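Illustration 12: PORR domain-containing protein.
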Amino acid sequence: MATYLVKFLRKRPVNHFICVRSKVTSSQYVASRARDSTFEKLMKNYKNLLKVIAIQDLILANPKKQSVSVEFLSKLSQKLHLNRGATAFLRKHPHIFHIFYEPSKSQPFCKLSDAALDISHQEAVAINASLPVVVDRLVRILSMSATKMVPLRAIFKVWWELGLPDDFEDSVIYQNPCLFQLCDAHEPNTHLLKLVDVLPNNHFTAAVENWRVVECCKEDCKLDRTEMQFSFKHAYPPGMRLSKSYKAKVKKWQSFPYVGPYEMMGEKKKSKAGMMALEKRAVSIVHEFLSLTVEKMIEVEKISQFRKWFGIDLNIRDLFLDHPGIFYLSTKGKRHTVFLREAYERGCLIEPNPVYEARRRLLDLVVLGCRGLPAVNSKYQDLSSSNEDE
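Figure caption equivalent — predicted structure in token form:
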């Protein structure tokens, strides 16, 4: 039996990446990743920001009153992941929410503070001003698809991350018929968003190409230009130990040629070199996708919606874990979120945009909690000083 097994394995060589992952389960692979305290701290606050935004959207959904009853929010506590209940969460963020009593309804209501309303208006103005950029992002995403199409439902999943207006189907898609077309997907509850005119391969320049040009032009650049041709920027989590063999593999991977995200992919080869080329192309696609987002971050589940359309045959989450120098995966808030490492420094975007700046202002209010308010109600101070994770 043992002899037969050896002969079987000799006939079927296993790809290097698959071989490594087969030793551990997917959850173990996630748990064993090197942590980065800067990104973890950011996500600890960001998960509460997402809850704040969910409540904010409910409040703004009623344009006349711009308020919602606390009782209604309490019924949605589980869905909104408010572990201590709606009232406790609202009181924890008095710089964002204002609770008041409505005599006509005989119950407490909640509305946004003036500061939160101002931030919401700032973000809306920034989104409207960046419509040309948004159109370019959509065209780029469609250009990375092998068929130049993606499901409309997938775009709905990432509209916030891409900085699209909430009425983007009308204000972006239907307003640009020369670029976009909605087609029947022959399946319920969705359409396919199609790029009308297929653009040449060299029409777009990937974000990593811009980085390579900048690096090559630096006076202190120590790398040869031929080495930079297929390289990606790497920055590992603090304290992560890199063995000599790992460094050698990364160096070999960096110099390995690949087909870019906007180039047409030829026939897929099952050889070791062919599999490595496919894997590196997949890295280039998700790298470019993250570069197109407002905050250079996205939930893994959301970007996975595009995997089939981008021709990625690999597990995207494992792809992020395989390249800790390019991506960082966080599991805070019961969700897997991936960051583009090179876009951040000390927990902030290196090159911020107006939409990001508005959202960052709201995040600052989330972090502020109850601090900066008169100590009228001791309950506020208790909530502010508590280290609970909502």
